Structure to design on (155 residues):
């Protein structure tokens, strides 16, 4: 069942976010749990943000969405900030259902389009190929591939 996030989901989402970070790579993989709790609290009250979860006796996946007005063209656009499904539920239906729910929410807010990107790298800023390829395989089934993500260490 896809539904909006609520306060009782905090611990489950924190656990899933840790799994997500571990899979994304050691460059992304370090999480500050307190900052994550604050983010979840903020997402719950900030306009233009929504967090949907898939619940099947427990939380098995989530998608974090943001709707904004693009400053360059004035169009409403949606952005998938994070999407994660636990490995044993990656049969295509959970992730697809979460993405479809996000799309419905973007439509409710009159977004013209929405964007999803896949980023994953190691601590030395090398690409996490497996994570990137898995994300690409999923999103290309439902969306058009329109770019790349680059990262450069500056500190």
């Amino acid at each position: 069942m896809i539904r909006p996030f609520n306060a009782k989901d905090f611990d489950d989402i924190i656990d899933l976010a840790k799994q997500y970070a571990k899979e994304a790579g050691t460059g992304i993989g370090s999480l500050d749990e307190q900052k994550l709790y604050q983010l979840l609290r903020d997402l719950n009250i900030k306009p233009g943000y929504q967090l949907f979860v898939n619940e099947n006796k427990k939380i098995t996946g989530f998608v974090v969405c943001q709707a904004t007005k693009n400053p360059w063209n004035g169009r409403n656009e949606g952005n998938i900030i994070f999407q994660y499904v636990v490995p044993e539920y990656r049969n295509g239906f959970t992730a697809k259902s979460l993405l479809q729910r996000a799309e419905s929410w973007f439509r409710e807010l009159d977004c013209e389009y929405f964007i999803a990107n896949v980023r994953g790298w190691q601590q030395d800023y090398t690409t996490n190929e497996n994570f990137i390829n898995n994300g690409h395989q999923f999103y290309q089934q439902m969306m058009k591939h329109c770019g790349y993500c680059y990262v450069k260490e500056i500190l």
About this structure: The chain has one domain: 2-139. Helices lie at 10-24, 33-45, 93-108, 129-139.
